[in-house]
Amino acid sequence: xxxxxxxxxxxxxxxxxxxxxxxxRRAVIRERQAASGESxxxxxxxxxxxxxxxxEGRLSAWLDTxxxxxxxxxxxxxxxxxxxxxxxxxxxxxxxxxxxxxxRRSQARVGRTNGVHGGHGRWLVNGSxxxxxxxxxxxxxxxxxxIDNLFGLGLSRVDELTVSLADPxxxxxxxxxx
Length: 178
Known about the structure:
The protein is α+β, with helices and mostly antiparallel strands and 178 residues long. It has a single domain (40-176), classed as PH-domain like, CATH 2.30.29. 30% of the residues lie in helices and 32% in strands. The chain has a five-stranded mixed β-sheet, covered by helices on one side. A four-stranded antiparallel β-sheet has the order 1-2-3-4, covered by helices on one side.
C-alpha cells in the first residue's frame, strides 16, 4: 500500500474514530498486514518509519517504494523479546535488546535530509525530521555494506542510532519494557 493510500486511510479513520494521526496510521498498517497475512506474531511490536508530507518526504517515500521495495508501510523497526530489527531499503540492523543502554526522544536537528546516513558509529535512519528517537548501543551493532551505505568497505559499527518513527513514544515504551 502506498504512502498516499496509507495517509488517506489514516485520515479517514481519524475522522471516524477521533484518534490521533499516529494511532490511526498504526491501525491502518496493522489492518493491512492482517489482511495480507503479514501480521507479526504475538509479543512482536512494529513501529513504522515516519515520512514527511513535504515534497522531500514524498520524494523519498516514492523512491524507496519504487527502487528498494520499502518506504511507508514497509520500513520500520520491529521489537520482540530479544531483538530490535531496523529496516529501511537495503539497510538492515539487528540489535540485541540487552545492548540498548538508553532510548529517548532525540533533539537532533536533521533538516530536510531523508534516508540512511552514518559514520564514526553514529547513524540516522529517517523519512522525516519528526518523531526522532535516539538509542545508545553497547556493545556496538554492526551493519554490512549495502546500497544505503555505499562508502563502507566492511562492517560499520553502530554506537548510536537515531530513527524517525510514526509512534516514537510507543517505541520508547516497548523498548523500555525489557
